[in-house]
Amino acid sequence: MSASFPPGAPRRAVVVEVGLRDGLQAEQLILPTATKLDLARRLIAAGVRHLELTSFVSPRAVPQLADAEELLARLGRPEGVEITALVPNAKGAERALRAGVDGMVVFLSASESHNRKNLNRPIARSLEDVAEVARLGAAAGVPVHAALSVAFGCPFEGEVPVAAVVAIAQRLAELGIRRLSLGDTTGMATPPLVRERVRALREALPELELALHFHNTRGIGLVNAWVGLELGIERFESSIGGLGGCPFAAGATGNVCTEDLVYLLHESGIDTGIDLEALISVARDVERLLGRPLPGQVMKAGPRLKLHPLDAVATARG
Ligand code: COA
Ligand code: ZN
Asked: Does the beta carbon of 150 sit less than 6 angstroms from any atom of ligand 1?
């Protein structure tokens, strides 16, 4: 295909696979480290170059990711792959730096209620934690990025004012953050909200790189991503098979599904470097591992030009 679509979209997009983090934190079943390792390696073999691998959070809060150190140690630093992890505070940063990550992602929420639920402290205290993580990252020469949860609406408070999002982003930028991911934790984003927030942030902070992290809770995750593409956003976070959800947000469900996103991007002439068929095969294995159907759709139907033999179905005869 010669041109990418929609107008304004980049020719190449960065797909950040967050299934091993956002996905597995939401599962009852705790996968063995060896299984996570195998999934990470297969995702990399499929062409994924950006992995949010795990979180260095309290293992009591998120036991599913308590093996963060071991997972990183066993994976090593695969060539050409950016491995990041969520870090809530200085203790998390010390752990992540010792384990050897390419980037740390500090996180906080755009609403007080979700910040208290997710991090057990007010936003102002979390910003102090961000400052400490930023200092530790700078001293170690490791980039510190940020993720802002409930950036399009909060399950406890409802509407989140765009001014609140911009104010937190401004503070983060002052602390040295250069890349911010807008998290739609419980799928409350809509096309107008995406446009409003991206435009407001660009106007206030033109140097800040934006990423979009949607959940498909209300079925319009990819529509929101499409609005991001129209605005020229290049970085999208998604989960294999559509896994995902924050255990500390009421009504959270899966992320935008990586195969569905990659399918949409490729069919729109936007390159990702990822092999869709290989991704589908990983998604099907994740489904088997978890023993339940995943929400991803392309993993069920296959690519659009996957043809079926004529005798695959009966002929309708009157
Ligand atoms: N890694 C490991 N342990 C940690 C930690 C970290 N990053 N941060 C704190 N702890 C430990 C402390 O050492 C302390 O342990 P101790 O009781 O054995 O001494 C204990 O946790 C309590 O520390 P405190 O700072 O009081 O934490 P808290 O109870 O207020 O919880 C967080 C704060 C941030 C640690 C916790 O809310 C958390 O891990 N949240 C992450 C939630 C998440 O990942 N959500 C999904 C992502 S959207
Ligand atoms: Zn999420």
From this structure: no
Angle made by CA atoms 273, 176, 203, in degrees to the nearest 5: 75
Those residues whose C-beta lies under 8 Å from the C-beta of residue 132, and which sit 6 or more positions away, are 89, 90, 93
For residues 192-203, b (16+ Cβ closer than 10 Å) or e, as one string? ebbeebbeebee
Domains and CATH numbers, the chain: 14-312 (3.20.20.70)
Q: pLDDT of 279-290, one tens digit each?
A: 999 999 999 999
Residue 88 CA to ligand 2 center (angstroms) comes to 15
Q: Please answer whether residues 47 and 278 qualify as being in contact, where contact means their C-beta atoms are separated by less than 8 angstroms.
A: yes
- What 8-state DSSP symbol labels residue 265? H
Query: What is the gyration radius of the CA atoms in the chain, in angstroms?
Result: 19
Beta carbons within 10 angstroms of residue 12's beta carbon: 12
- The minimum-distance atom of ligand 1 relative to the CA of 65 is 44
Interatomic CA distance for residues 32 and 61, integer angstroms:
18
Q: Whose CA is nearest to atom 11 of ligand 1?
A: 58
Amino acid type, 44 = I
pLDDT digits (tens, 9 = 90+) for 176-233: 999 999 999 999 999 999 999 999 999 999 999 999 999 999 999 999 999 999 999 9
125-to-100, 116, 237 alpha-carbon distances in Å: 26, 10, 26
- Identify the CA nearest to 84 among candidates 164, 179, 171, 216: 179
Q: Compute, in angstroms, the gap from residue 2 CA to the centroid of ligand 1.
A: 49
